[in-house]
Amino acid sequence: QVQLVESGGGLVQAGGSLRLSCVISGNILSIGDMGWYRQAPGDKGDKRDLVATVTMNGKTKYMDSVKGRFTSSRDNAKNTVDLQMNSLKPEHKAIYYCSADVTTYSEHGEDYRFSSMYFWGDGTLVTVSS
Questions:
Q1: What is the DSSP annotation of 89-117?
Q2: How many CA atoms lie within 13 A of 17 on its CB side?
Q3: What is the dihedral of CA 4, 14, 127, 55, to 10 degrees?
Q4: Residue among 25, 28, 81, 26 at smallest CA distance from 58
Q5: Which residue, among 50, 54, 85, 48, has the nearest Cα to 68 in the 3D structure?
Q6: What is the DSSP letter of 76?
Q7: pLDDT for res 42
Q8: Alpha-carbon distance 130 to 116, whole Å?
Q9: Could you give the CA distance from residue 4 to residue 120 in angstroms, rounded to a whole number?
Q10: Secondary structure class of 9 (helix, strand, coil)
Q11: pLDDT 10s digits, 6-46
Q12: Which residues fall within 8 angstroms of residue 81, CB to CB, at 6 or more apart?
């Protein structure tokens, strides 16, 4: 199966920087859009706010409040996506989740079957102190 593992979260002072990384592994045929979402700690709902997305060709899109502060990039050869976060503010505190549109393959006798769906990591906590 597919696994997404985030790293790089932690505690940083306001104005500081963090770099989040996400590694995707498994029976991967291809990866489409990759992205970062966030959810406030303690929020029990399912809604996660889109922070940034990166297409297979490297085209990026950001939520308005992080434009100019955050930069996302991917390495298609390594199946990784990063989020560089600069000039962090306390309101950026959240659990950041990596997501990817992954096409997987599996063997069934002499045939292969393919499936595409979005996968999620478990999240990494970012805390910004004032």
A1: -GGG-EEEEEEEEEEEEEEETTEEEEEEE
A2: 8
A3: -20
A4: 81
A5: 85
A6: T
A7: 83
A8: 42
A9: 6
A10: coil
A11: 999 999 999 999 999 999 999 999 999 999 999 998 887 77
A12: 21, 22, 24, 34, 35, 36, 54, 72, 73, 74, 75, 98, 100
Backbone dihedral angles phi then psi of residue 110, each to the nearest 5 degrees: -90, 0
Compute the residue count for the chain: 130
Tokens linked to 89: 């503010």
Distances (CA, A) of 102 to 5, 16, 53: 14, 32, 14
Strands 124-129 and 10-13: parallel
Q: In the chain, what is the straight-line distance between the N-terminal and C-terminal CA atoms, in Å?
A: 40
User: What are 114's two structure tokens?
Assistant: 């393919």
120 forms beta bridges with: 99
- Establish how many alpha carbons lie within 13 A of residue 39's alpha carbon, considering only the half-sphere containing its beta carbon: 14
CB 33 within 8 A of CB 101: yes
Residue-wise pLDDT for 66-102, tens only, equals 999 999 999 999 999 999 999 999 999 999 999 999 9
